């Protein structure tokens, strides 16, 4: 199975939507990679930069992502995608070297000031100013 590197610069808004959990086989045993490392899977919402539509992908890592929590922004290193086919079924598999928590671009601080939206409107539809 050939893996293809993903250009992370073309993605934005990476967000953990399913906290890391052990990747298990049908018997409930945690799977291991070829080097004997336990495998973990994390659900991540991704969006192509400049577009509105998001997709959720399950990303597998060979180490438990530390500090990654559901709902938090994340960063990913060395993301690869592979096409697989088994007994007539097929799909895409995503693997990364690591997944880590990432602070929002604004530093995570919150402000009580309204966030301007399109056409001078606050989020929620109220017009700003008079």
Keyphrases for this structure?
6-stranded mixed β-sheet; mainly beta; OB fold (Dihydrolipoamide Acetyltransferase, E2P); 42% strand; globular; 130 residues
Report what the structure shows.
By secondary structure, the protein is mainly β. The protein has one domain: Beta Barrel (OB fold (Dihydrolipoamide Acetyltransferase, E2P)), CATH 2.40.50. It is 0% helix and 42% strand. The chain has no helices and 8 strands. The chain has strands at 3-5, 11-22, 40-48, 54-61, 74-77, 80-86, 89-95, 98-101. The strands form 2 sheets. Strands 1-6-7-4-3-2 form a 6-stranded mixed beta sheet, with no helix packed on it. Strand 3 and strand 4 (54-61) form a beta hairpin. It is globular, with a radius of gyration of 18 Å. The relative contact order is 0.20.
Helices and strands in order, then pairings?
Layout: E1 3-5, E2 11-22, E3 40-48, E4 54-61, E5 74-77, E6 80-86, E7 89-95, E8 98-101
Strand percentage: 35-45%
Helix/sheet category: mainly beta
Level-2 CATH architecture: Beta Barrel
Number of helical segments with 4 or more residues? 0
**DSSP strand count:** 8
Oligomer: single chain
Strand order of the largest sheet: 1-6-7-4-3-2
Overall pLDDT score? 84
The rounded Rg comes to 18 Å
The largest pleated sheet is described as:
6 strands, mixed
CATH topology group: OB fold (Dihydrolipoamide Acetyltransferase, E2P)
- Binned, the helix content reads under 10%
Poorly predicted regions are 109-128
Q: What is the total number of structural domains? A: 1
- CATH class category: Mainly Beta
The general outline is globular
Q: Order of helices and strands, N to C?
A: EEEEEEEE
Distance between the termini: 61 Å
